[in-house]
Amino acid sequence: MPNTPAPTASALAPRYPVVVIGGGQAGLSTSHYLQAQGIDHVVFEKRRSFDAWRLDRWDTFCLVTPNWQCRLPDFPYAGPDPKGFMVKDEIVAYLEAFARKVRPPIHEGVGVTRLSRHPSGAFQVETTMGNCLADHVVVATGGYDLPIVPPCAHSLPAGIRQVHSVDYRNPDQLPPGGVLVVGSGQSGVQIMEDLHLAGRQVHLAVGSAPRSPRVYRGREATEWLFDLGFYQLTVDRHPLGDEARHKTNHYMTGRDGGHEIDLRRFALQGVKLYGTLDDIQGGTVHFRPDLGRNLDEADEVYCAIRRDIDKYIAAHGIQAPEEPPFEKVWAPEADPLTLDLAAQGITSIVWAIGFRPDYHWIDLPTFDGRGHPSFRRGVSPVEGLYFLGLPWLNTWGSGRFLGVAEDAQHLVEVIAQRQAARAPAPAPRLAETA
């Protein structure tokens, strides 16, 4: 793999109390708390730490949440713009500074190829550097392993350039001509805007992702939502329960100081909108008749957030400027069902329909019927196995800089308690003889 460092030279110990798999912000947060507890451990990272941020983002990528929400363990954002949005290089610099503070016992360039039970009862950890045993294993690899491309992509004409969002960098890497962006989650709408601002003709297949206001009634919506307790809501109290983990995040952007994204306004500016991708037959793309519904449902979530903020302001007697009611500035006359790529001059497609995790290397009974890991606040039913850094592991912030520290601290406390419970009782003192 390009940019993969050579494995650290030091040999592996035969057994570790804790093995952490993944050297990103989740894995290093775990290492921070393990060191604080005095628990010996090792971290395996198959690439370099933070290469997902360094190498797998487009050039204009920035956070969609404000900098004040960057709260890694004992390392909150301390820069000059807490209400701003760090761009890619600033994010990497923040994370690298965190790594220098933590100084984890990490082996970079070492991938874990299999995790299973050893006959002794410990975990068998097989890596590209060798094997070891572990009493506890924390899987902190995240959920963005395998880019999703629909099977019908194989039907596209050979001349159409296909790029997944993980490989998109800037408009200049795409051939001249129109671009179809498939997916309207965070990545899709931001790449759409990037292309649109560069003067490209953009076509966007709109899915079911909800949207959020950026600033409302004189204040960042994320600040209002923090005060409302939204970020403290745990998954076991969420109306959707575990299904919340599989829902798409609200789209907005931190670009150019942050702003909300209303796809209807982009339609007025010339972006062509379609419903959910349904099929591809040769040079014709087919869509479901759901564009109007998808736009309406995204707007309803947007308006519901505004109503919640309005209620909070009224209940607490807060003085805040009024806002005009939401109005639709554009609506499709009919849902377009087909798109002829050649006729519209489309030469490339950007797939922005997400990722799926890759847990094929975990040979343990910890997955549900859909292949997702089972856990309660990261603690697997397989004793000694833990997951960290996933969306809604406990709260909305669990997969983000905001909540990963709290989750990591909780898991390390569980590990420490289990270690203490297994420790042999001290031998009784013999009475001293006269």
UniProtKB/TrEMBL annotation:
Instruction: State the name under which the record lists this protein.
Output: MSMEG_0569 family flavin-dependent oxidoreductase
The reply to whether Transmembrane helix figures as a keyword in the UniProt entry is no
Fetch the InterPro entries from UniProt: Auxin_biosynth/cation_transpt, CHP04046_FMN-dependent, FAD/NAD-bd_sf
What are the record keywords, sorted? Oxidoreductase
The keyword Thylakoid is assigned to this record: no
Top-level taxon of origin: Bacteria
- A Pfam family of the record is Pyr_redox_3
The record lists the lineage as: Bacteria, Pseudomonadati, Pseudomonadota, Betaproteobacteria, Burkholderiales
Q: Which PANTHER family match?
A: FLAVIN-BINDING MONOOXYGENASE-LIKE PROTEIN (AFU_ORTHOLOGUE AFUA_4G09220), FLAVIN-CONTAINING MONOOXYGENASE
What stretches pass through the bilayer? none
